[in-house]
Structures are given as structure tokens and as C-alpha cells.
Amino acid sequence: MSRQMFLHEAQAEDPNTRRATHGSLMVLTWNIQNPSLKRATEQADWIVGKGADIVLLTEAKHSEGCKYIQDWLESYGYKTVMPPTEHDDYCVIVAVKGLPMQVREPRIRLFPQRAVTVGIQTILRTMTVMGVYVPSRGPIERRNIDKRRFQSELTAVIKGLERTEEAETLIIGGDLNVIERKHNPHYAVFGEWEYTFYDAFGECGLVDAYRLKYPTKNEYSWYGKVGDGYRFDHMFVSKNVASCVSDCSYIHDVRTAKLSDHSAMCLEIVAKQGTT
């Protein structure tokens, strides 16, 4: 089935005018909480309004709302990837505007649609960008088994990239459903295996872009029913990319406005001389 067309498409922005061709790049990640069609229209407008070059949307499904967002982004010149799923499971939507993109083969066996990888030709040569939605933990043991296995497979993928060219310009972003070992406040519910997963990124040479810019700040992207804050959404970048990060911050307005139960996260990169 072809996607719906929108009236504004004839006036879509020329990709050649994108700032990505002039030394900067914006990456946006957001857990959109599988929206209804009504909420999806508001989310889609907000996403387009941010003008990001690369968009990573987690907790998506092949639902009416998520398909609307995909069509809306494409109507504004984005190329999108929304992998097929089984049993109505969640997936990640990746959208890229104004930059050549190549979809990479799935690298994990369990829930491959939750770890979508693309190669993108950018100011920093060809970058490998991975949008990730890690399964959440829960009271049902099966869910924790799935989360642990998914984390193990993803860790193995990252370690496998460590000595390849892809590791030089790598961005991994999304809802990782994990908090850092020194998260404030500390929550006893998280096991050592979950902290080990977070630590694995650093052990593989990746940098927590938010902590790079805000080493001691306490900020949360999701809140529980009793008001406990968790920094679940992350951006990890290779060291070459880290040297070009101008900012990495959360956008809380979308959460407080109830467009989703998660805050969005924005990574801004500015190329330095000798990095292109």
C-alpha cells in the first residue's frame, strides 16, 4: 500500500539546503509511546518542527498512529526505515533527511526490529547510526529474560564493531531502559547485569554524550507512577564523534505536554577541521 500524500509536499525543503552539508548535524531520539492517531498528528508536527537530520523513534508499532508519523516525515523529505515485526511487537523508526542512507542487515537475532542500523554519509564521512529500544523489565520473569538476552546480543554487536571502521563514527541512541551505575537516586530494583550493560558502552570505547556535556547534572527522561525519575534515554558516540559534540540535552516539553511519557533527546554535532 502506498502512503498517503499531503498538500505541503510540493513545497518540501530542498535537501541540498540542509545544514548537514555545511558542517553540523542534529540527531533526535524520542520514545513516542505508540501513539493514537490524534496524538501522532501532534507528535509528527513537533518532530518536523525540530528540523533534525536524523530521527530515532522508539516504542513504535505498525499502528495507525505510527504509520501516520512515518508518512508525515516522508512527506517532508525524510527517508524512513520501519522494519517488519512479529506478534505486533514494538520496533524502531529511523528517519534521515538530506543525507544518503543505506540500511544495514539486522545484527541481533532477538527482536532485530528493536535495533535498526543504517549507514549515513555525513560531514563525518560515513557514519553508522543505530536506533535502539531495549525491552523493559517487569514483574513477569519472561520479560527480564528477554531484556537480558537482548542486552547480551547488543553488547556482542558493539564489541564486534570495536576494531572496525564503523567504530570510528558510531552513534547509538534510543530508549535503552537502563540507568547508569551512579544514577541519582539509586534504585535497588536494577540488577548488576543491567549496570554491566550500561558499562559495556564505555568499555567498547563509546562515550555517553549527555555525560560528556553535563558530568554531574541529575536529569530524567521518564517518571514512574510515584514520581521517581529515571534517565532511560541515551546517546552514545564514538570518541571521534565525541570530539565534535556541541550539545546533548533532553527536551522535557513533550513529556510535560503529555505528547509521550518520555522526554526527547537531542544530539548536536559540529564538524571540526580535519574531521571531514
Give the structure's gist in a few sentences.
Helix content is 26%, strand content 29%. It is of the alpha+beta class and 276 residues long. Helix 1 (37-50) packs parallel to helix 2 and helix 3 (141-161) runs parallel beside helix 4 (192-203).
Main attributes of the structure:
single chain, 276 residues, alpha+beta, Deoxyribonuclease I, Chain A, six-stranded mixed β-sheet
Description:
The chain has a single domain (23-270), classed as Deoxyribonuclease I, Chain A (4-Layer Sandwich), CATH 3.60.10.10. It has seven helices and 14 strands. 40% of the residues are buried. Helix 1 (37-50) packs parallel to helix 2 (64-75) and helix 3 runs parallel beside helix 4. The N and C termini lie far apart (39 Å). The chain is an alpha+beta fold and 276 residues long. Strand 1, helix 1 (37-50) and strand 2 (54-60) form a beta-alpha-beta unit. The strands form three sheets. The chain has a six-stranded mixed β-sheet. It has helices at residues 37-50, 64-75, 141-161, 192-203, 209-213, 239-242, 253-256; strands at 24-31, 54-60, 78-81, 91-97, 101-103, 115-122, 125-133, 170-175, 206-208, 222-223, 229-230, 233-238, 245-251, 264-270. The longest helix has 21 residues, at 141-161.
Outline, from the CA principal axes?
A: globular
Q: Helices and strands: which structural class?
A: alpha+beta
Q: Using the 3D structure, state the CATH architecture.
A: 4-Layer Sandwich
- Our estimate of the beta-strand percent is 25-35%
Quote the average pLDDT.
90
Strands, count:
14
Low-confidence stretches: 10-18
CATH topology: Deoxyribonuclease I, Chain A
Over all CA atoms, what is the radius of gyration?
18 Å
The CATH superfamily appears as Endonuclease/exonuclease/phosphatase
Q: Please give the domain count.
A: 1
State the helical fraction.
25-40%
